[in-house]
Amino acid sequence: MPSEPKVPGAVPQSGVNVPRVIVATTALLTFISFWRAASIVLNDLASSAYYAGGEAEHFIGKSAPWFILAVMLFSYAVRAVYVESCSMFVRGGVYRAVKTALGGTLAKFSVSALMFDYILTGPISGVAAGQYLAGLLNESFDYFQIHLHLNVNGTAVFFAILVTVYFWWENIKGIPESSEKALKIMKLVTVMVVMLILWCGFTLYTRGFHLPPFPTAKNIVLGEDALGWLHGINFGALFGMMAIFIGLGHSVLAMSGEESLAQVYREIEHPKLPNLQKAGKVIFVYSLLFTSLVSFFAVMIIPDGVRQGYLQNLIGGLAMSLEGPFVARLIFHGFVVVVGTLILAGAVNTAIVGSNGVLNRVSEDGVLADWFRQPHRRYATSHRIINMVVALQLITILISGGNVTFLANLYAFGVIWSFAMNSLSVLVLRYKHPGERDYQVPFNLHLFGKEIPVGLGLIALLLFTIAIVNLFTKPHATISGVAFSLLLFTVFTLSEHATRRAKVRAGTSQAASMDHFNLEQESELTPASVGARPGNILVPVSTLHSLYHLGSVLDRFKPERRDVVVLHVRVFRRAGSGEHELEPEQLFGSIEQHLFSQALSMAEKRGKGIRLAVVGTNDLWEGILRAAQSLQSSTIVLGTSVKWTTEEQARQIGEGWEKLSDPKPQFNLEIHTPTGDKLFKVLGPHAPNLTTNEVNELHQLWLRFSEVLAPEELHHHDVVHFALDELNHELDAGKEDDVVARLRAHIEENKRKRNPPPPGS
Fold it and tell me: How far apart (Å, rounded) are the C-alpha atoms in residues 249 and 550?
């Protein structure tokens, strides 16, 4: 019989002991390869290739491709800053870096600018996708002589709203983040990019070409739109230098998405830093070829008069201007739009996920009240944050009227200030926390025993120069960005003060319906740390409104035989830039306090003790399974999901079991429904539960073959083994499709037998 636990279970506040909650500070993360990490970043970064080149040319003329190229080359230096930031903190991300270096006030400002970036990412991506779609439809209508012409801007607004609302609902339900989807999309994008480069190369070979005019003082065209508040000022000899920075400021959109690199660092597999650097190189080469070449090809291939009508639909215009039959160009244009819609729609989702993650992150630090993170009654997602973000995005889409240029101006504000604040933070940390680092931005001088970070300083200086120039050349962006940032900064500040006062009140008075808990920090969950015997029952809980499965377990288990561990899994969003090692307060707040108070109340009514634990993860199923593996649990009890059927839920957790490290333990899985029904599964290799008919069929086959093979001895398991070998031979012989078709027909036939049609139907 298992030994008694050394540590008592959690008891209600009315008991002798304050209930213990074991907080595992090592997150149970699922790690990904550098290829998948690069795909995630490129899904965000590559979307800007669809609109950055056209927007740059709108402001600075035909020399724009050279500025796009310069920005893409400079992006390698900016990426180096993020790599150094990640090497200093496993956590990464603008918010934590700025807070550590410059304090909470500037951290709140930087997050405000970052949120402005995220809020604009969705609308500009959705509207740009709508522009491409409308352009394709209008050209198709013309080709097929359909007398219909869509209003491009109106269609773009409608499509952007449709996509935003779709991803709002998906995020409310809690769609999982998938590096596999990102990798598949980038494979499709790669096919499109290779086709585009080859076809553009053939077109230039056939027609001949001239490079875009080099950005000399006479070639840079700066109109009133490009100069903003600087229009009318005579810069004299400084014009050339000012023109360069103005051009860079109008091209900086080309490297939007760099923040994603810090967000994926937490998930990159070992060795983390070398793999992060590999991902950075892949991102650099890919974005340099795609984003830069699109801008150059557009200027060299699309006639000047025609190109002005395609500035918000640049790759679409490029596809229609290639050498070849119109039908082939139209089909390729359709492919470009399909790929663009996927990647731009993905950016809409990234914007919602990113905003949700960042605001959850600052809420965990006490900057936003826990009210914002209160879980949805049904889906247990932070719906209030999602609703707020999407409402702002929808308002932005309507205000834009489908004009990508208007959105691009606003978007550039958040992009450049996020980069600038992060670079300044890393620079300050060189002095606040000197010493060896796993990685440093290159070009560091050592004079008189002091390190002078020349490379990092120049990057920060250049970013701040572009940011300041943008303040004067983009009036709408400056007014909107500053107003939004000040508004959000004010909300952060007031909310932070209110949260602190609430914590002080909570420390002096305790609500009758709430229990206080003793948080005990452990690096990992173990039976000894939790105080549970091996073979315990693990009950993951997520929301106050779905504890029926816990009640079912409490009704049946006997404390003298087995222990019950109630586990709350905090699922991290990628954009939250959370840490691998966590503070207990980041995992246990008022939400968890309410949840565990209710769990204790249920246990008290039944006179039974439970153990309480919290852990963080980036994958729900793997997090639960790895916690069960660490706790040596024998049974996992879940409630039904509102997103999946019980069979699908069991399938997904089965896939998670396959990813566990060896030796994989076997678990009994129970999925309970609110009506009291239960689904039982066994995770891991196990003997199948054969029906009476299946046993009889096996026995009849054994009798038949025993007679034929006599005097050879034949056992029932020989028949099963032979059948499995024959099935494997068919699969190895390339007959998988036939086998799958027969298996599907077999399953359908069994369904019909179990559920026969009613008589007379």
Answer: 57
CA nearest neighbour of 629 among 541, 524, 550, 553: 524
In Å, how far are 247, 254, 295 from 70, measured between CA atoms? Answer: 10, 10, 12
Q: Which helix (H) or strand (E) holds 51?
A: none
Burial 200-219 (b: 16+ CB within 10 A, else e): beebbeeeeeeebbebeeee
Q: Find the length of the chain.
A: 761
437-465 per-position pLDDT tens digit: 788 999 999 888 788 999 999 999 999 99
Measured distance CA(500)–CA(95) in Å, rounded? 19
Residue 105 has phi, psi (to 5 degrees) of -65, -50
Q: Strands 635-639 and 537-541, how do they pair? A: parallel
State how far Cα 154 lies from the chain centre.
Answer: 30
DSSP symbols for 388-418: HHHHHHHHHHHHHTT-HHHHHHHHHHHHHHH
Tally of CB atoms within 10 A around 645: 12
The mean pLDDT of 250-257, rounded to a whole number, is: 86
525: left (phi over 0), alpha (psi -120 to 50) or beta: beta
Question: Would you say 603 and 559 are in contact if contact means Cβ atoms under 8 Å apart?
Answer: no
In a 13 Å sphere around the CA of 394, the CA atoms on its Cβ side amount to 15
CA gap 31, 626 in Å, rounded? 13
Per DSSP bridges, beta strands 450-452 and 611-617 are unpaired
Is the C-alpha dihedral spanning 258, 262, 264, 265 positive or negative? positive
Please list the alpha-helical segments (H only) found in 61-178.
64-88, 94-102, 104-143, 152-173
Determine which helix (DSSP H) or strand (DSSP E) holds 266, and give its type and residue range.
none
pLDDT for residue 81 is more than 80: yes
CA distances from 54 to 291, 424, 469 (A): 11, 30, 20
Distance CA(565)–CA(3), nearest Å, equals 16
Q: In sequence order, which residues have a C-beta less than 8 Å from that of residue 103 and are 6 or more positions away?
A: none
Q: Please work out, in degrees rounded to the nearest 5, the angle formed at the alpha carbon of residue 56 by the alpha carbons of 50 and 59.
A: 140
Amino acid present at 58: H
Q: Which residues contact 339 (CB under 8 A, 6 or more apart)?
A: 188, 189, 192
pLDDT in tens, 128-164: 999 999 999 999 998 888 989 999 999 999 999 999 9
What is residue 515's predicted lDDT score, i.e. its pLDDT? Answer: 59
The arithmetic mean of pLDDT across residues 20-29, rounded, is: 79
Question: Beta strands 564-571 and 537-541: pairing type?
Answer: parallel
- In three-state secondary structure terms, 637 is strand
Q: CA–CA separation, 694 vs 407, rounded Å?
A: 65
Q: Answer for the pair 664, 657: CB distance below 8 angstroms, yes or no.
A: yes
d(CA 577, CA 357): 8
Q: Residue type for 210, please?
A: H
CA–centroid distance for 291 within its chain: 22
Per-residue exposure over 19-29, b if at least 16 CB sit within 10 Å of its own CB, e if not: bbbbbbbebbb
- Sequence-separated (6 or more) residues with CB below 8 Å from residue 153: 131, 401, 402, 403
pLDDT tens, position by position, 504-527: 776 544 443 445 788 888 888 999
DSSP H/E element including 448: none
Structure tokens at 217: 């003082």
CB contact at 8 A, 727 and 719: no
Q: Which two tokens stand for residue 757?
A: 């049609």
| β-sheet bridge partners, residue 570 | 616
- Of 204 and 368, which is predicted with more confidence? 204
Q: What is the spatial distance between Cα 614 and Cα 530, in angstroms, rounded to a whole number?
A: 10
Q: Note the pLDDT of residue 485.
A: 85
Confidence (pTM): 0.79
Q: What string of DSSP letters covers 456-494?
A: HHHHHHHHHHHHHHHHHH-HHHHHHHHHHHHHHHHHHHH
CB 458 within 8 A of CB 81: no
Proportion of the chain in helix, strand, coil states, percent, rounded to 5: 65, 10, 25
